[in-house]
Design goal:
Elements (H helix, E strand, L loop, with lengths): L11 E6 L3 H11 L4 E7 L3 H11 L3 E3 L2 H6 L5 E4 L6 H10 L3 E5 L6 H14 L3 E4 L6 H11 L6 E9 L6 H4 L5 H16 L3 E9 L4 H5 L5 E8 L4 E7 L7 E8 L3 E5 L8 E3 L2 E3 L6 H4 L1 H17 L7 H20 L3 E2 L6
Parallel strand pairs: 1-2, 1-4, 2-3, 4-5, 5-6, 7-10
Antiparallel strand pairs: 7-11, 8-9, 8-15, 9-10, 11-12, 13-14
The protein binds nicotinamide-adenine-dinucleotide.
Length: 343
């Protein structure tokens, strides 16, 4: 149970911070939730704030995120700003007694993330972090089956993620490296579906785009995972794919296996002679449309029901430690145990 009490579950006052690319998706969701009242959309770029106000059907636009947090009509803060600003905005929100839903990650540094975990525990306020794949119907079903024991003892985990277009160099220079920026979603799933990881060994290289070398980053990687429960895992990540957004996972147990594989976007297939053709997903907005909506809807359902929303800051910290372990393993060319990743 959460210490947080909504004033009126039929009308929850919300501030949205950041009105960029990802926020527009979340604001459309918020505008469609009956008991959400978006009080204010704050973005230092006036045109973005105003456009956000329209999308979210908010009462007002603001240039000042701290004023939006302090607004007395705001009980919940939704943070969709650049990653480098998340920690200070979460802190300000918790100090103001507000519940928080924030895009991932909390921070790129373990110290900053651990500070938020401590504050979250001390305040008892609800905080959820946007690892949206947990809310995809495929991964959610896999989790149900695993928890129900349908697979038996889990023995193997395999995940592939291939993004379509690499981000610009300017983004890569501040993204904390591709283990933190991209593989992190598969690492979160590994923990969600199988459990905590004991040791990793990661290899990475640049095969496709020299901008990754310029950013001291990689575009192609393979990670081996040894889980605490004895299972073994492999995560493959590529930052480009010419065949669409290619995201798959497989969990094998002693009794059964489950595969999460959305390789067909539209349930329509056309024959071309003896060949079949169907369309694939173009990008993450496309593939995880439902997950992006459900992660926000379930957060508000949890607030109304008094449930602790998930995944929380403690999950964000553990998944970050895993991504940091992978980065360290690649850079130092050695296996890294999770218990050595404390900072
Ligand atoms: N879960 C996912 O799959 C996923 C996908 C894309 C982005 N993200 C995350 O979403 C966040 C935002 O990414 P984006 O692609 O929308 O970025 P973006 O650059 O398109 O938008 C960020 C917006 O925040 C505004 N902003 C900057 N500082 C601010 C502040 N202090 N207060 C309020 N607004 C501020 C900017 O003016 C901009 O409009 C990032 O943390 C990113 O990691 C997550």
């Amino acid at each position: 149970m959460s210490a947080f009490q909504l004033r009126d579950p039929g009308r929850i006052g919300v501030a949205v911070l950041g009105a960029g690319r990802m926020a527009q998706t979340h604001m459309r969701t918020l505008a469609g939730i009956g008991n959400v009242d978006v009080v204010v959309v704050a973005d230092p770029v006036a045109a973005a704030a105003e456009q956000g106000r329209e999308i979210a059907r908010a009462r007002k636009a603001s240039l000042d995120p701290l004023a939006a947090i302090a607004d007395p009509d705001v009980e919940v803060v939704v943070i969709v700003t650049p990653t480098s600003t998340h920690a200070e905005l979460i802190e300000a929100s918790l100090h103001a007694g507000k519940a928080v839903w924030t895009e991932k990650p909390i921070a790129q540094e373990i110290g900053d993330t651990a500070r938020i975990v401590d504050l979250w525990r001390a305040t008892g306020l609800p905080v959820a972090v946007g690892f949206m794949r947990r809310y995809d119907p495929g991964y959610a079903r896999a989790k149900e089956l695993i928890d129900a024991g349908e697979l038996g003892r889990i023995e193997q985990f395999h995940a592939y993620s291939r993004d379509v277009n690499p981000p610009p160099l300017e983004f890569l220079l501040h993204a904390g490296g591709s283990f933190l920026d991209m593989s992190v979603h598969d690492l979160d799933l590994a923990r969600f579906l199988v459990g905590e990881v004991e040791e990793v060994h990661a290899w990475a290289t640049t095969l496709y785009d020299d901008r990754f070398t310029q950013a001291n980053d990689w575009d192609t990687a393979a990670i081996m995972l040894k889980f605490r429960n004895g299972a073994m895992g492999v995560v493959e990540t590529a930052r480009h794919s010419t065949w669409g957004y290619d995201i798959r996972a497989e969990v094998c147990g002693a009794k059964n296996k489950v595969t999460i594989d959305a390789d067909r976007k539209t349930p329509a297939t056309i024959t071309h002679g003896v060949n079949l053709q169907h369309d694939l997903y173009g990008d993450f907005f496309d593939r995880f449309d439902v997950a992006y909506r459900r992660e926000i809807e379930v957060f508000f359902e949890d607030l109304v029901a008094g449930r602790t929303p998930l995944p929380g800051p403690d999950d964000a910290l553990e998944t970050l430690r895993l991504a940091v372990a992978c980065t360290r393993s690649w850079r130092e060319n050695r296996p890294v145990r999770l218990d050595e990743v404390t900072e």
